[in-house]
Amino acid sequence: MIHAYSELYLTGACRIMAALFDSALGTMTPSEFTGLFLDSTVAVSWEAGNPKYIAGKSGEEILEEITGRNPVVSAQPQDRSAAYWCGHVYAYAQWYFGCRFAELFSAIPIEELLSLYTPLHEADISKTMALFRRRLFPQPALKTWREKRNLSQSQLARISSVSLRSIKAYEQGDLDISKAGYETLWNLSRSLCCEVRELIS
User: Fold this and answer.
1) What is the pLDDT of residues 148-175, one digit of tens each?
2) What is the spatial distance between Cα 190 and Cα 183, in angstroms, rounded to a whole number?
């Protein structure tokens, strides 16, 4: 997966986005915020890894830029609020998948993500990313590429030297293809005439 910025900035970027969501959702509805955020230059700049946003400004400063008005800053940081968690998750998902925010908000709208706070906020972030993955990529990339090449699972197994059992498990989501060995990924990508990254994205 190619990321817009280094993982070294990820923790700070998640904190900034979390503070932005916490401030924004304290004063406007999720749909109002989503519209303003996506219409602003902030979303595109963030997606490109612009350091001005991922490391340079606070969440409150970004909200002021988006809305054109001074934000109401809460006296006490709400680092445990559902809105704060929600912002953290979207920032992480944008970095992790390399998607546009519009795609993320479409896959899991803010209202829905807020409703998942209680079951997911104490779980490892990988559980929430698995939910995004299922929504963003409803069909595994391996299956998409295999069907694009008009191959059955057994034909792909034969030409790639990857077992039929493994191919079925990757396509059903029982095995995570991103954790497959390099030789397996190389053989599958070579057989499907695609790049390794296209199978694991």
Assistant:
1) 899 999 999 999 999 999 999 998 878 8
2) 10
